[in-house]
């Protein structure tokens, strides 16, 4: 009988039609070849699609909220990852759209992943995969990067970059899944490893991008700030602002009408503090630069800037100069 799985794989929607052999790493097969075949089996995609849909339904955006007590509007059921039980995922396969397989069972799920934590880890890795669709299409992304590299609207491009990146977090289930996965990762090395690998795969390309952008503008990071530090700081800003928006939409950290956000302002602040021009660099570390800004003179050589307390009545500038 002819194997129709490769043809069906090609009919699946993006990104399920892509090669997932490097994404799914916990499949219960002994050899790399057999794991690769299973990773690209439409049946495997069916369980992933069911899991992703359950995440979207329970975590949002537009999550379906269920009342524990129909007479109490505040009695929302608040599961963590309990909605991804093996039975629930297997049952959800029946709701898959065409052309996904629509027959699921706990036994098939268990034969694909040896443990439920392995399935969760691969589902999270797939859901957090960097090649998932984003808010900004390729043309928009290229326009922003072009403006950052050599365009006449650098500051505006930073605002657009912050706004676009923020929407990729708050308007898609991936970031919500990341938050819940982080909470579930404690004492679970499988999920911790999946999260760590996701961060590396997403952030490593940005190290090269940021390095190229700084060089093209004749800028450099201050002494003591590495490109890894800078990208981690940018990530922390983006995720922090996104979390603020999800927790309190009334905080107005996103201006959708004006296509601006607090993230763009924070990115500009990071650039102002961590970056200096090559042509007129002062060579100070970030700590020394802040010390000089506050006290008007550089910190004493060999001493960590800003560590020595300056009391309200003390002569800070004189003390710093001594």
Please explain how this structure is put together:
It is a single chain. The chain is elongated, with a radius of gyration of 24 Å. 56% of the residues lie in helices and 3% in strands. The chain is mainly alpha-helical and 322 residues long. The longest helix is centred in the middle third of the chain and has 28 residues. The strands form two sheets. A two-stranded antiparallel ribbon has the order 1-4. Strands 2-3 form a two-stranded antiparallel sheet. The C terminus is likely disordered. It starts with a helix and ends with a helix. Helix 7 packs antiparallel against helix 8 and helix 11 runs antiparallel to helix 12.
What is the percent of helical residues? 55-70%
Measure the end-to-end span. 87 Å
Strand order of the largest sheet: 1-4
Strand content: under 5%
Radius of gyration: 24 Å
> Care to count the β-strands?
4
For the sheet with most strands, the description reads: 2 strands, antiparallel
The topology string of helices and strands comes to HHHHHHHHHHEHEEHEHH
Counted by DSSP, the helix tally is 14
Low-confidence stretches: 133-139, 305-322
Mean pLDDT comes to 80
Structural class: mainly alpha
Specify the overall morphology.
elongated
What topology does this entry show?
Layout: H1 5-11, H2 32-39, H3 42-59, H4 86-92, H5 106-112, H6 116-127, H7 138-150, H8 154-170, H9 173-184, H10 189-216, E1 219-221, H11 227-247, E2 254-255, E3 260-261, H12 262-274, E4 275-277, H13 286-295, H14 316-321
Antiparallel strand pairs: 1-4, 2-3
Helix pairs in contact: 6-10, 7-8, 7-10, 8-11, 8-12, 10-11, 11-12
